[in-house]
Every structure is written in C-alpha cells, then in structure tokens.
Amino acid sequence: MNQRPKLTLILPLLVIVLIVVGGIVFIINQKNNVTATPSLNADNGTLAAAVTESSDKNNVLLLTDEEIKARLPNLSDYPQDPKRIVVLEYSFLGDALALGLNPVGIADDNKPDSIIPEFNQQLSGYTSVGSRYQPSLEAIADLKPDLIIADDERHTVIADELNRIAPSIVLKSRGESYVENIQTAQLVGHIVHQDQKMSQVINTHLKKMADLKSQLATTPLANHSVQFAIISDKGMWLHGPSSYAGSLLNHLNIKSPIPEQTGEAYIATSLEQLLAANPDWLLIGRYNDHTIYDEWKSSPLFNQLTAVKNNQVIEVDPNYWALNRSMQSAEYMTAELLEIAKPKGKKSSSPSLKESN
Length: 357
Hints:
This protein is of the alpha/beta class. About 40% of the residues lie in helices and about 15% in strands. The longest helix is centred in the N-terminal third of the chain and has 29 residues.
C-alpha cells in the first residue's frame, strides 16, 4: 500500500510540534534566566547598580550626587587632571571623548576599524593595548598612564595588577543597558573631576533623544516588534531587553518579541528559537562574511519568519549596535531606526543599512 499520503500529512505536523516545543523551551529558559543587575565595583566597595527609568520613559533617571559619591568614595586616589588615560572598553572611550579627553591607550581588539567614525574623528592618535578580553599589561605599563578605566565583567580579575600600574577604576560596560551606560558616564565624569561638563553632555544627549523619540512614535515601528541580533560563523545572539540595544529599543517604546523579565543580555539562539520569538523586524549585525544566518536560509523554517516574509530583515553596523555603546551610538541607532521606518522609495542611501533577506 502506498504510504506517501500519510507521510505528507505527518511531516508538517512534526514541523509544527518542533516549533511549538522549541518556543516553549525558549520562553521558559528566558523567564528562568532572570538575574539581578551585576554589581558595580568601585575602589574597595561593591555597590548594587540601581538602574531604572522615570515613569514616562522620556527621561533617564540619573544618579544623584550622593549616589555618585557613594560609589566612588575615594576620589582623592585619582589624578585631578588626568592626561594619560587608558580605556579597556569602547564605552569608556566615548565617555572620555565626550569630555574632550584623548586616551593614549585603547583596548581595540587590534581592530582600529571597529572604532566608530565619530570617535576616530576626535582621536589624535593612540596605542592599542590589545583585546578587550585580555589586554596586554605590558603595553599598558609602557604607556605610563595616570588613569586606567576597566570593565567589571572582564577586568576585575586583573584589577590589582592594573592598580600597580596606575590608579584604576572598574566600572560596568559589557552587558550594560542604555540607562546604565549613561549612569556610568556620570561616574567617569566624576572620576576625572568633570561632573559639570558631563552633566551638560548628558542633558544635550537626552534632549536630542527626546526629539528623535517623538519622531519615531509616528512611524510604523512604534506598533511592531523589533529585534537586534549579532550573527557570526559561530551562531546568532539575540540582544535581549536588558542589553544595550534591547534596552534602547525599550526606551524608545519599541516592542520586544522577548519576555521583558529576561535577565540575560545576550541570548544564543537557534532558528527554531528565532521563529518562536518571530519579530516583525529583524536587525542583524554581521561579524563574518559567512554566518549561521546564511546557512539557515536553506531551511523551510526560515521563510516562515515574519521579518523574512515582509522583507524586513535589515543589516546594521554592529560597531554601533553592539561594540561602541555610547551616547553617540544611541543617537546614531535611533536616527537609523527612523531611516528604516521610512517608505522604501524615500530611504536615503546608507552604507551601514541594507536589506538582508
């Protein structure tokens, strides 16, 4: 007897079951991965970072003077007017440049092109001290810095060694949210004794963001879910609601397809899990010419993605959306969202923006 009709019925059912099961597991995992905001190391104390936004979401809740002083109680340990700063994350580079300070050393992963043009235009030359993951202590020492700004997730383990080279501060960078990034900028302003100037920089930024946000509210993106992801030859990572890109989208009142209580910033994702999230718009930052995403295109599941069906998969520059977390990047990203939301015939040509279906 010919069994082909039965197989024709069974195979689609199996695909549906796999999608449903994968989606349930994905959502359960994200709900179970809720974590507290990582602590912020400052001098000899460890204080929890309080990160919230005001109720109308038009303004970021900044740290008070008392909170800043509580996190950085030993300000006298740091130079009054640092001239030779080494930064071990791109976000700290943005903070320094915003204050007119030119770091002499940067952990740039030995890839100067990964620094966004806005930063490069302000830099007057620097020395690479290696990767952000494992900066060269020898290269840092050779620069004879008077201040080192490091990331608490990557560099806490070498904090003592950094302090033997120069006064060092370990602040949050990797995995930070948009609000945390601005609060850290306040701390950087305090550590270099430029609180007032940093306050002016932040206020100017927030006013610009409020204007861009009001424009974005009238676009189709305001009523649809948007997801940013990094893709490489090793896999795809969704940037969740607690990540920099995810929290910026939330600040802009753009819906996330991932549960808000997800605590994990970067979520390793399979095609089945991506389909379970199924964003209306998918923004992807490519780290390699050939990625896992390109391999997924041959799967029948790929064409079931809403973003693929509607030709709403857009490639964006990961240097802005992931690496160079900063007020400058936030403004660029929001302006780019406005560009994405324009009708196709009205979009301007942008080298970092292209459809990727």
